[in-house]
């Protein structure tokens, strides 16, 4: 009997030692994040659902009951905020805050999307009106998750928890960096995709709640928790994409689960794009104001197009590409390569992990892998790991950000 007790204690300690090191909660309330929803210099509008208050020097105004649809427009010396029966005029230095009376039930509509939290209006540079949403960080994350990752399968839950920690860490780092600025983050891919309340899902909200206040740390500071859709089997070194100092946990390496690439289930794991000679001529004309096909030759002329990879990174991604066409030669680097192959100004080349092939005299075939920059956590890799039984802390600490640790800060 004595040996059984000792064995049980040993097994208990072994199981406990495999759990992530998360420090106890110190602060109960989450901080408030400021998200830029829009920057405009013409007339726009918002609709209030539930009561909001507007505190001015002369009075406290209640809005949202009878006055729930408001226009916002610039004026000669500032901006106007008005409805059919109310008008507020503010000078260029004013910061206007609309505060919901009930943080959970009150929300507002902007461009057919719904948001919780405070509404902040002010003038930015070049007389643009800034529409900013100030909201509890945890509420913000619930909509970021559905904007960044699929949340329609219970088997994705561990990946969603990993994404929640990445998104929380990233947001807190931006809040610290931009503390003195009017807003902390953009609402799109320049930072994180901030989706509408309408898109919130049970699973995404549960993932945020399950990891409340938990962040990823490296030494004594927030880790750089970059993420992307699909790495194509190879993660990228951060210095190859953004330059700067090398970071030990953001190095180039294979992303494998078992005997296959982690993100193999992704619809972007492998892809192909074709471009006609005429399309490349059009792209060259748009980007560099040069066109061979627009000339009026006296006789037949030969138009030579050459695309040459000058440099690849250790992950195989194209770092430098030379394009020679007619009498012009240009060198593109990093994301500018993806932007060049953007037809009609829509989208960009999915990734820089590609090879090129001339199908015939007038068609270029680009065969590629992955979607996004390839730095940090591969979201489709994390989703696959989650389905294979990996836990969120294993996905983060052991797979994508080795050498980091988890910490609960509120």
TrEMBL record:
Domain of life: Bacteria
Residues of the Sporulation stage II protein D amidase enhancer LytB N-terminal domain: 126-218
Pfam families: SpoIID (PF08486)
Coiled coil: none
GO biological process: sporulation resulting in formation of a cellular spore
TM stretches of this protein: none
Name recorded for this polypeptide: SpoIID/LytB domain protein
């Amino acid at each position: 009997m004595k040996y059984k007790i000792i064995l049980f204690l040993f097994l208990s300690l072994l199981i406990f030692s495999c759990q992530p090191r998360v420090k106890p909660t110190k602060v109960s309330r989450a901080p408030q994040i400021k998200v830029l929803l829009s920057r405009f210099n013409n007339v726009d509008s918002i609709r209030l659902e539930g009561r909001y208050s507007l505190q001015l020097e002369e009075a406290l105004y209640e809005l949202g009951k009878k006055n729930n649809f408001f226009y916002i427009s610039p004026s000669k010396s500032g901006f106007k905020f008005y409805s059919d029966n109310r008008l507020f005029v503010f000078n260029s230095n004013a910061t206007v805050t609309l505060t919901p009376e009930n943080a959970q039930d009150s929300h507002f509509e902007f461009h057919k999307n719904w948001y919780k939290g405070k509404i902040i209006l002010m003038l930015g540079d070049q007389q643009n009106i800034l529409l900013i949403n100030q909201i509890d960080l945890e509420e913000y994350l619930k909509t970021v998750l559905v904007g960044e990752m699929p949340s329609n399968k219970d088997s994705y839950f561990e990946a969603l928890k990993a994404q929640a920690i990445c998104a929380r860490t990233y947001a807190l780092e931006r809040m610290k960096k931009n503390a003195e600025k009017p807003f902390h983050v953009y609402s799109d891919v320049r930072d994180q995709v901030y989706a509408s309340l309408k898109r919130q899902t049970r699973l995404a909200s549960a993932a945020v709640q399950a990891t409340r206040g938990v962040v990823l740390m490296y030494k004594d500071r927030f880790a750089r928790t970059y993420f992307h859709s699909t790495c194509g089997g190879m993660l990228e070194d951060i210095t190859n994409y953004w330059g700067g100092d090398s970071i030990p946990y953001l190095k180039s390496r294979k992303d494998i689960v078992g005997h296959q690439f982690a993100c193999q289930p992704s619809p972007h794991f492998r892809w192909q794009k074709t471009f006609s000679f005429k399309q490349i001529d059009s792209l060259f004309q748009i980007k560099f104001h040069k066109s061979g096909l627009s000339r009026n030759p006296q006789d037949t002329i030969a138009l030579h197009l050459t695309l040459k990879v000058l440099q690849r990174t250790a992950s195989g991604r194209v770092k430098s590409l030379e394009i020679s066409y007619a009498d012009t030669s240009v060198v593109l680097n990093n994301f500018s390569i993806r932007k060049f192959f953007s037809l009609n100004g829509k989208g960009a080349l999915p990734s820089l992990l590609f090879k090129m092939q001339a199908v015939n005299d007038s068609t270029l075939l680009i065969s590629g892998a992955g979607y996004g920059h390839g730095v940090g956590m591969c979201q489709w890799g994390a989703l696959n790991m989650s389905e294979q039984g990996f836990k969120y802390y294993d996905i983060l600490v052991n797979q994508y950000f080795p050498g980091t640790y988890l910490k609960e800060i509120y």
